[in-house]
Amino acid sequence: MWNGDVIRDSIKFACVCGLFVTSMGCEQQRVASPAAGEHPAVVVTQPLEKELADFAEFTGRTDAVESVEIRARVSGYLNKIHYKPGREIEAGALLFEIDSRPYDAELERCEATVATARASLKQAQAEMLRAEELHARKISTQADYDKAVADLSHAEASVDSTQASVTKAKLNQDFTKVTAPISGRTSRELITEGNLVTADSTALTTIVSLDPIYAYFDIDERTLLDIQQKIREHKIDSARDRDNVEIRLEMANETGFPHQGVIDVVDNRIDAGTGTMQIRGRFPNSERKLTPGLFIRIQMQLGPARSRLLIPERALAQQQGQRYVYVVSAEQKIERRNVTVGRRDGALRVIETGLKPSDRVVVQGQQRVRPGIEVKLDQETASAKVSASEPTLGQPH
Asked: What is the DSSP track for 253-296?
């Protein structure tokens, strides 16, 4: 059981500790706060004026211009696989070989049939000569002459029919060697040697072309209407009327949209389910940097270049969805300016509204200021202008 003296001593100790912690916090606050009358130092810069065009960005996927699923055209047992999966091959390269012995035998049979038909044709031709001579001398009847004519026609047709069988047998023999119909990169083999292959049914592998390569992306309805308006105002060219409307592409591990291509196809309607229209771009791929199926970003120019103001991204702050910056007035006092931001340009951000070229924007020291207080400037950078190559402009005193 606790006695009264112990309880009173515990309460006194707790109060002393609380007072000590409070005094320590106040002391720290006095140390962290600037001295009375001292103005916080900030680094400022003036917005950079630069000619920039309007761009829209979209997400999409790459795809092969040509994609072929290889299937056998004759049935038989797979004897040999001649290619290395994942390698690039040229059109006409041998991929698979099916046992050709049954088709070799069929070809020989058809050729023998042709020889028989040609022998019959020679006999029919000889009979026709005799029938003509006898008919001219009025020794044979008209029926005998007509029969000789029919036999000759039948023999000629038989030769043509058997020759067609030989052509088909040669095709089947050739089809036992499966070749690449296009140049491109192969996938893995879908069947191994020794298995039965069924004509026009068994898939063997796939091939996709690599250069050029397609990029499919969808543009939303609002952007589409904006583009159509600019086309009517002759600010940009229509991809349906011109074959070389440029677009740019970047992969997930790239920046700056380094790949340049052109719009290839614009769809003829908006998808009612998604409210978007699909566009297909075509990009050269001689260095094989692009692979079918990649997630990509597409940049499309929406108008001519015009003068823009840019500031470093680090100068921007946000409160309840509103972007703003701090600027230093002529009286060296802080003002808050709400701004409308545009796209990025390297380390900089385009400011659409809210700033003037002469404004001095705080790029360092924002945490120590608030609207209405007086500040001092870093004299080395107070009149400096920001650049895309050197966005950091000095340190505060």
From this structure: T--S--EEEEEEEE-SS-BTTTTEEEEEEEE--TT----TT-EE
